[in-house]
Every structure is written in structure tokens, then in C-alpha cells.
Design brief:
The structure holds two protein chains of two kinds. By secondary structure, chain A is of the alpha+beta class. Chain A folds into two domains: 98 residues, Ubiquitin-like (UB roll) (Roll); 131 residues, Alpha-helical ferredoxin (Fumarate Reductase Iron-sulfur Protein, Chain B, domain 2, Orthogonal Bundle). Helix content of chain A is 36%, strand content 15%. Chain A has ten helices and seven strands. In chain A, α3 runs parallel beside α7, α7 runs antiparallel to α8 and α7 packs across α10. The longest helix of chain A is centred in the C-terminal third of the chain and has 17 residues. Chain A is elongated. Chain B is mostly helical. Chain B has a single domain, classed as 3 helical TM bundles of succinate and fumarate reductases (Up-down Bundle), CATH 1.20.1300. Helices cover 88% and strands 0% of the residues of chain B. Classes of the chains: A alpha+beta, B mainly alpha. Chains A and B meet through α8 and α10 of A and α1 and α3 of B. Bound molecules: iron/sulfur cluster (2 copies) and FE2/S2 (inorganic) cluster. The site of FE2/S2 (inorganic) cluster has 12 residues of chain A, from loops.
Chain lengths: 239, 112
């Protein structure tokens, strides 16, 4: 029996470029990343793309599949192909380096700008911090902690598209997990970093990020949390 | 603008929004009442002239509308255009003051 063929168009080039058509044999349980790998191994070795873990942990394989940002290693072709056709482009809202590879530098740079790193409280720890798993802070941090840094939310956010300075859902979600980390001592700087028009106050709460996040996180809720904390700090004159 | 300034604007807009939600409800109810009763302009003026409660209500209503709309307009302009610097903040402040004054003038005309 002849293989059933998928018609795949793939973005080739950088910010300027074009879609190139390939035919790839359909396989059961095939992922979009399998399709891209097939093209690179069998049809055109010059195709550039990123992946590492293939099991949804590393966050490196995100692309735009039929117009929607997805983690390609965990996206089955059957679920997204329309009449055996798929269109694969690089992530939106980032500059394209080549083909399906985007420059993630601004994305991670914004994590830094949002004070997304742990800052130990200044008093030297005498003992292990005890964080009750059921406490409000721990639960809030837990809800956002599983981010794999894939950039799917960032590519799906309209405000990022409008305002290149906007920190975006992932960086703000990261900041929120740290705001809720009782061992962290960096919150006054962090709040100043995430408040304002380039930060949490720019979010429209329209939840594209939450809808698309492959880890089912809810950056919108994290950002709403930041707005609440920032409002409280403003009223207390602490911001 | 500083993060503190932005956060204050955001709070002010939310607070004005809450006031507006109440004020618009009262305003609509008043309109429905007036239309239902078939009140003439003169009859309406007879009720509002010299009435300090209505004056206060409309002064607050107009200021809240100007504040809420002005801050929102600034946000829309910042998002949709490249106008983002200090001059936008000054234009926003001017808009809020002018819109408030226009509203207050109308409120004063109902009172006196
Ligand atoms: S909810 Fe906020 S962060 Fe998420 S996509 Fe919308 S504007 Fe972007
Ligand atoms: S929040 Fe979700 S979509 Fe955004 S980077 Fe993290 S895992 Fe990816
Ligand atoms: S390859 Fe690691 S998440 Fe897809």
C-alpha cells in the first residue's frame, strides 16, 4: 500500500522568506516535530529548527503550526492537520534567525528585567525554610512553577505584538512565583520591575496565554495576582 | 513614567470605574424615570435647581468619567501608536482637566 502523504509547507528564510512545500509520509502517532525531523533528515538537510528532549520538558521545540503556537514534540499531526496539510512557521513576536529558529534572547532578557531570579533574603538562613505545602503562597507558586520557557504564550500574546517592551506572560508568571516564595527577599525591586505599562498593568487579561500554554499554566491569573499586590503596595506607599 | 506612577494611574482608573458603574446606573434610572413620567425640560430643571445632592452627584460623575476615560485613552494611544513619551502624559492631564470642567459646567447649569 502506498504511504499516505502529508502536504507540509515550511517557512524558509529569516524575517524575509517564503513557504516551501514538502511531502512527508503519514505515520501513526506522528508528531509535528517528527515531520520536521523527517524533512531535515530525508528531504533537505539545510532546514534549521530546534529541539532537545522530545518529551515536553525542555521547551525548545515551539513553532507556529497552522497558525497556532504549539510545542511540536507533543503535538500530534492527526490533531492539527487540515485535509492532510500542515503549515509550519517559526514562533511569532520574535525575530527569525533562520527557518524555524527564532532569537529567544528578548524573551529571556525579559525574565531578567522582571527580576525573575531568586534573591535570598538578607538574613543568613539558620535552618531550612519551612514552607507548608498547603499555605496560600506555596499553592500560588505551585500553580505557576512548571513553566518550561517554551515561549508559546509570548508568541500568542497580542500585547507583546503591540508593545515590544511588554514583559509578557512568561516573565510575569515567573515573577509571580517568586513573589510567593517566602524565602525570597527581592520583592520590592521585583514589584517596581513588573508594575507599569511594560509590565502587569499592560495585560488585557484576554487569556490567549492561558489557552495556549502547553503546561496548562495560567499566566493571566499570575498577572492578576501581580496587579493585586502592586495595588496594595501602592496604597501603602511601598511601591 | 515610573512604576509607582503607572500603578497609581491604574488604581485611579479602577476606582473611577467603580464610581462610574454606580453613577451610570443612577443616571440611567433617572433618564428612564423622566421619560416614563414624560417630564418636560422645565419639570426636570425644577427638580435639579438648587438641589445640592444632584449637583454633588453630577460633579462626582463628571470627574470620574473624565478620569476613567482619560487614563484609558492614554493606554489605548500608547498601545496603538508610537506616542509614549512625557508629552502624552501632559496631554492626558490636559484632557482630564478639560473634560472635567466641561462636565462640571453642565452640572452647574442644572443647578443654577
Ligand atoms: S492575558 Fe495578558 S499576558 Fe496573557 S495573552 Fe492576554 S495580554 Fe498577553
Ligand atoms: S507559561 Fe506556558 S506557554 Fe509560557 S513559556 Fe511557560 S510553559 Fe511555555
Ligand atoms: S523538544 Fe523539548 S519540549 Fe519539545
Amino acid at each position: 500500500m502506498r504511504d499516505q502523504l502529508l502536504r507540509v509547507s515550511v517557512w524558509r528564510g529569516a524575517d524575509e522568506g517564503r513557504l516551501v512545500a514538502y511531502e512527508v509520509p503519514a505515520r501513526p502517532s506522528q508528531t509535528v516535530l517528527d515531520v520536521v525531523t523527517y524533512i531535515q533528515r530525508r528531504l533537505d538537510p539545510s532546514l534549521a529548527y530546534r529541539f532537545a528532549c522530545r518529551v515536553g520538558m525542555c521547551g525548545s521545540c515551539a513553532m507556529t503550526v497552522n497558525g497556532i503556537a504549539r510545542w511540536t514534540c507533543r503535538t500530534h499531526v492527526e490533531r492539527v492537520a487540515k485535509n492532510s496539510a500542515i503549515e509550519i512557521r517559526p514562533l511569532a513576536n520574535l525575530q527569525v534567525i533562520r527557518d524555524l529558529v527564532t532569537d529567544m534572547t528578548p524573551f529571556f532578557e525579559k525574565w531578567r528585567r522582571a527580576e525573575g531570579r531568586f534573591v535570598p533574603a538578607t538574613t543568613p538562613a539558620r535552618d531550612f525554610a519551612k514552607v507548608p505545602p498547603a499555605s496560600r503562597e506555596r499553592r500560588a507558586a505551585d500553580a505557576g512553577i512548571e513553566c518550561i520557557g517554551c515561549g508559546v504564550c509570548y508568541a500568542s500574546c497580542d500585547v507583546v505584538a503591540w508593545d515590544p517592551d511588554y514583559l509578557g506572560p512568561a516573565a510575569l508568571n515567573r515573577a509571580w512565583t517568586l513573589v510567593n516564595d517566602v524565602r525570597d527577599g527581592g520583592n520590592s525591586d521585583r514589584l517596581r520591575a513588573v508594575a507599569g505599562d511594560a509590565g502587569c498593568h499592560a495585560c488585557h487579561s484576554h487569556q490567549s496565554c492561558a489557552l495556549r500554554c502547553p503546561k496548562a499554566l495560567d499566566p493571566t491569573a499570575s498577572i492578576a495576582g501581580l496587579k493585586r499586590v502592586a495595588a496594595r503596595a501602592t496604597l501603602r506607599g511601598e511601591l | 513614567m515610573t512604576a509607582r506612577g503607572e500603578a497609581r494611574l491604574w488604581l485611579a482608573q479602577r476606582a473611577a470605574g467603580i464610581l462610574l458603574a454606580l453613577a451610570v446606573a443612577v443616571h440611567l434610572a433617572t433618564i428612564l424615570y423622566a421619560v416614563h413620567r414624560g417630564l418636560s425640560a422645565a419639570a426636570i430643571l425644577a427638580r435639579t435647581r438648587g438641589n445640592a445632592a444632584w449637583l454633588a452627584f453630577y460633579l462626582v460623575f463628571a470627574a470620574a468619567a473624565a478620569l476613567h476615560g482619560g487614563i484609558g485613552l492614554r493606554t489605548v494611544i500608547r498601545e496603538a501608536t508610537a506616542w509614549r513619551d512625557r508629552s502624552l502624559d501632559l496631554a492626558t492631564a490636559a484632557f482630564i482637566v478639560l473634560a472635567t470642567l466641561a462636565g462640571w459646567r453642565a452640572a452647574a447649569a442644572l443647578f443654577a
